[in-house]
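Lab notebook: predicted structure, single chain.

Context: the supervisor wants predicted structures on file for every construct in the current expression panel, including those that have not yet been purified. This is the next one on the list. No modifications to the sequence; it matches the entry in the shared construct table.
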Amino acid sequence: MKRFRILGAAVLLIVTGCAPAAAPAEPPTPTSPPEPQTVRVMTHDSFDISEEVLTAFEEEHNASVEVLKAGDAGVVLNQAILSKDNPLADVLYGVDNTLLSRALNAEIFEPYESPMLEEIPDRLELDDEHRVLPVDYGDVCLNYDKAWFEEEGLAPPSNLETLTETEYEALTVVENPATSSPGLAFMLATIGHFGEENEYSWLDYWADLRENGVLVTEGWSEAYYEQFTYASGGSGDRPIVVSYASSPPVEVQFSEEPFDEAPTGVVVGNQSCFRQIEFVGVLRNAEHPELARAWIDFMLGETFQEDIPLHMFVFPANENADLPDVFAEFAVVPTDPVTLDYTAIEANREAWIEAWTETALR
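Prediction complete. Output recorded below exactly as produced.
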């Protein structure tokens, strides 16, 4: 057989006049996948999302996600502005509509029109240039302890004006707008509701609240967990607190006992709430801008959006995202929340806070 193969090869060479055939090519050496790139997401301390969700993005994009929590939203924005020439991250999440104008004026974002915007309602998209994109929203509203009012035989508050009535003296706790995001939002709700120039203005309202014994705390945790009768287990003495419209379903979700209805209620009528919208954007000079855009697409997609309610206790911006059962059953969404133009908020925020301080505290 060997002689036959050699002879056959010789005949083939004579007939064709060709050189001997080249040896078969070596199979390609397997190459290892490229090292994962890291997308850095700068955000506020309240950011929270499932490990499984982060892992889903990392596996899809051969990437790792590094979350940089840098304080409350205002502190985070200040750091991003100070470091804009050499940013600390690729993405900034958590700027809301009370800080939006400051962020846009500082030119820290690279415009990006995500294809996922098709699933986001226009009413949440405040920046036509797509420098920031809406991720979630929540309404800051008055919450009340249902059992307390039932035991006292007193009707729960139905609007903002109720809090100034004699029967509701010393029943309300609010947060300082100079030090608290919900405190600022509630102050803006009163400005939008009562106006600045009306015969009965927002400052008249705050003067009446002060006269009626309103308590002011530095932050939400102190107000809700220490002063609010329900969340404090009765150690507090204020059955009305400034919190979120999403607080009742959260109370149900994390309660040790089942509820047929939420133990706390929300005052949602007649422009008594302020809607906060949180945004995300690609930072200019980002190290990995392409991966940053992929992360933003992911944040606006259903996997991330459906994880938001039970981790950050706000509502997803994506209309196609399903709400968890406890939100669908127990959440109350205001139909007519206060909204103020974000440029007006930026132009007047400090003056409003100073006027509030003079009226409510000094």
